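Tip: read the tokens left to right.
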């Protein structure tokens, strides 16, 4: 997996000896994943999946995507038993995985799968270090 580009910096270490690390270092250390936007005005943007449950939507979510085709709380992506899942949260325009529509239930998603939330396509890129 290529190293994601980021503008975020986190501080780690004892007080007074903090070391600054870019998000890509944390991504590799924690072994999560990245969502890469494939279509629309945010094409190329990368969002990090770094916790057990990550909400995706238009506003007030972990990953906010400014697009009218995406519901306010569109979907949730989570990790359980070493696998990633996506659950549609009743989105008006639905959610697709690799061009197959589903709603209201969870589906396993794997490295390289393409999620379509409304008009926005995103590819899941799982870190090589992901251990679940």
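Filled-in amino acids:
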């Amino acid at each position: 997996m290529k190293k994601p580009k980021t503008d975020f910096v986190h501080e780690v270490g004892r007080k007074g000896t903090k070391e600054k690390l870019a998000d890509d270092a944390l991504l590799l250390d924690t072994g999560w994943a990245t969502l890469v936007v494939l279509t629309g005005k945010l094409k190329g943007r990368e969002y990090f999946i770094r916790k057990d449950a990550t909400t995706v939507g238009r506003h007030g979510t972990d990953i906010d995507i400014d697009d009218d085709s995406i519901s306010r709380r569109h979907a949730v992506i989570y990790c359980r038993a070493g696998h990633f899942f996506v659950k549609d949260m009743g989105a008006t325009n639905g959610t697709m995985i690799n061009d197959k529509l589903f709603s209201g239930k969870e589906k396993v998603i794997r490295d390289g799968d393409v999620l379509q939330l409304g008009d926005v396509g995103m590819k899941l890129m799982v870190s090589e270090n992901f251990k679940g």
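The first strand starts at residue 9 and ends at 12. Residues 52 and 124 are 15 Å apart (CA to CA).
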